[in-house]
Input
Amino acid sequence: MIKVTLNDFLYNSGILGLIRILDHSGINYQKEGNQSILFEESALENFENHYFNYLIDKYDYDTSYSKMLNYESFLLNYKQHLSDDKQLEHFNEIIDNMKRWLTSNSYTNTYRFLTEIDYFFEVTAKSLKKISKKKNETFEDIADQVKETSEKLLTCIENLKHPQARHYLVARTLSYQIVQGFWTNVAFLNSTASKKDLYIEYKNYFTDAVQNYLETKKNEKKYAKNKFQCATCDNTMGKLNEAFDLTWLQKTGVDAARKSSHYWDHQRDIFICPVCNLIYSCVPLGFTLVKGKGIFINNNQSIEQLISANLIPLRDGENELTMNELEEKAYYRILDVMDQNVESKKQLEIDNIQIVKFDKNNESRPYTFNILSKQKAALIVKAKKDLNYLVGKYLKEGREYTDLYQEVIKRIYNGQSFYDLLNKLMKLYISGDFKNLAAIYRILNITNIQFEGSVHFMRQVELQEIRNFGEKLREIYVNENQKNKINGILYRLLNALKVKNSNKFLETLIQAYSYKKIEIPKVFVKALSDEKVFQTIGYAFLLGFSSNKQSINKGEEK
Output
């Protein structure tokens, strides 16, 4: 039996990836205690196929291969009747894409392994030409060309449907699209292996090494003399040529051959065994990924909780999730697990659950980390509706876009205040450079929710009342044709909030009310007693005073 035990985030994502492969392939494993799994050596038989089968079944929908298969319905229609310029443009786009994909290096280097398919994809691709319609031509005049090209493309797609084409072409595509973001330079991602069978390369480098090592381990007397300890597990090795390092993992480990100064007396003393090497190869399968970005919830309290926390869907019906939506579902998955445990009266401590985000395009720092504590989790669950609204909402400043959802989540993680963001958005709203007042209200609501249970908290009805005061005062200025004075008052109030000067804020407010000979609401006296309450009351009033009622999406607000 092979035993693996939870460790750091990278190793844990590898264990989760391994579990997913075993589950997908119907291979049994068993849990030992809370943090270990055991599986038979026989699970390694045909493991390279199990590895890629899981990868393909999970991610093939976002590959050029699947996109080509999806062209079939369009081509069947265009073959019968192509009737306008928009359809012709799309038809030529299909031709261009298929030609580009079928002649790419990843495809041409793989065709040699499609031994069961008697078809030359590259020859067909190179013969493809876009179809043009001259000014004096009708769509009937080019109908034969369209039909001929459609039939050629449909024949190509029919051959792509062969299981062997999917087996190799999608595996090769995903090796670059998914795996290479996490590790490279070994097995099928070695620079010399681009034209080799990637299944065999994986087997030779990872699986065979484990099987050979396990054979030597069976000699107990010899194994007891091993002196090289694996840095991750309890395994030992007798020779350095049995050991591996972590330099092949992206931005991880030290190249002992080139950077020996990292080790004491330049002597390499950190090794991993072949079993752990195999586990690390499964890291990409432990993350949930969308468009080169992904997330992994390192809930390492137990194997069961690690699996449960990472049951995150990639799609919502027919639609692929964005990274923000994926992250959102990941948080709520954790919170759902919490709720289930509370309902079943089980104790669940969630302090210090590590949220690991991955970005393939960030070459210097592909992994970023946040900690989800009980307090932060409670805030996220209480603010769920407001956070949902912020998904997909952006602030544009020049050519720069700020993702409001990410800005708020970042502040929740880091325990930062939201007031600087509120001030910035209000200022941009007043100047006309940001129009989503409802988003500002949502952020103010999240700001207030974090104070629930403390003296700083204000009930929703109180916030709404303060907003109403602002709206009513604005209406008075507008009705008396003094709308031009509103922005001046707004900027003075906003500046007072920025520097947390409650006296200046109240002075400006008194002047604004006195000018109209109206009594100032007593609630503003409360703003003098507490800095956080002052900020909350201040921004609530500004939201009302700066808006006409049509500027707030009442449905969202409700």
The two ends are 58 Å apart (CA to CA).
